[in-house]
Write a structure and sequence with these properties.
With about 120 residues, the chain is mainly alpha-helical. It has one domain. Helix content is about 45%, strand content about 10%. The chain has six helices and two strands. A two-stranded antiparallel sheet has the order 1-2. Strand 1 and strand 2 form a beta hairpin. Helix 2 packs antiparallel against helix 6. The longest helix has 15 residues.
Length: about 120
């Protein structure tokens, strides 16, 4: 399941492209970093949902794909009571919960640091 992310640029896009290269590197970094930041909000019993992910990137999009078959139902909270023993912040719509907790600002800061490091 892919979720779109949004953020504000603190550098002109032409400079990002020049300094980092094709945006694919930045978008893959953003997807991996966003997963790291929202990970505590993902329901976790045995860990498959939280850990079994694939990352894809193009020049303009980063994608996080939770690969377990029940990911969509968990994300939408259909008929689930979340066990919060391992992840006390677990919820449906875990990306939205992470944004509400201020993780979007942390993502923007990490992305800015990535760009400032020249894409490393």
């Amino acid at each position: 399941m892919a979720k779109d992310i949004s953020f504000e640029w603190y550098m002109p896009i032409d400079r990002v492209i020049r300094d980092v290269g094709v945006n694919k590197n930045l978008m893959e970094f953003a997807a991996r970093e966003w997963h790291r930041l929202y990970y505590p909000f993902v329901p976790y019993r045995a860990g498959q949902l939280a850990r079994q992910v694939n990352f894809f990137a193009s020049d303009s999009v980063g994608v996080i794909d939770h690969t377990v078959g029940y990911a969509n139902k968990q994300y939408n909270g259909v008929g689930f009571n979340f066990n919060r023993t391992v992840h006390p912040l677990a919820s449906a719509f875990w990306d939205r919960a992470a944004m509400a907790a201020g993780k979007g600002a942390a993502l923007a800061k990490s992305m800015q640091a990535f760009v400032s490091r020249g894409g490393k």
